[in-house]
Amino acid sequence: MDNLLIIGAGQYGIMIKELARALNIYDRIDFLDDNSDEAIGKISEYTEFVKKYPCALVAVGNADIRLNCSDKLKAAGYKIESFISPKAFVSPSAKIAEGCVIEPMAAVSTSVEIGRCTIISSGAVVNHNSTIGEGCHINCNATIRSNSNVPKKTKLDCGEVF
């Protein structure tokens, strides 16, 4: 098993750590964060940890930061992970890019494409034949109608319909 480095030790980072632990695929899971005592280092120090933590995921709500940081991590040699909760439904025909998180009770239907570094929160539904751009956040109980094309960096609030 590998070690995982999570960028961002805030509320979302803690949720990602819990999800990663539940998957039981990492020996060690730690944070980089500029404002947390739980972090093993600052975000700017990411190049120092690539050998010990070959896998990484950015757990930051801001889409620009999430995408930019993921690019830097990948260029430094990290494998950018995606996480799908075992309590989510993801169709076998769905395509999930790197850096994505599919939270518990989310549903991703047939022939859906989800762009990199996108968050599909608990209870969200992405209906069939839809495309979600990179850096999106489909918040809790939001719904993407079938055959939709969600532009990159779109954030849908809880309960919204697109």
Fold and architecture overview:
There is one protein chain. This protein is 16% helix and 28% strand. With 162 residues, the protein is an alpha/beta fold. The strands form four sheets. It has a five-stranded parallel sheet with strand order 5-8-11-14-17, covered by helices on one side. The longest helix has 13 residues, at 11-23. The radius of gyration is 15 Å and the shape is globular.
What's the structural blueprint in terms of helices and strands?
Layout: E1 2-7, H1 11-23, E2 26-32, E3 55-58, H2 63-75, E4 79-80, E5 83-84, E6 89-90, E7 95-96, E8 101-102, E9 107-108, E10 113-114, E11 119-120, E12 125-126, E13 131-132, E14 137-138, E15 143-144, E16 149-150, E17 155-156
Parallel strand pairs: 1-2, 1-3, 3-4, 5-8, 6-9, 7-10, 8-11, 9-12, 10-13, 11-14, 12-15, 13-16, 14-17
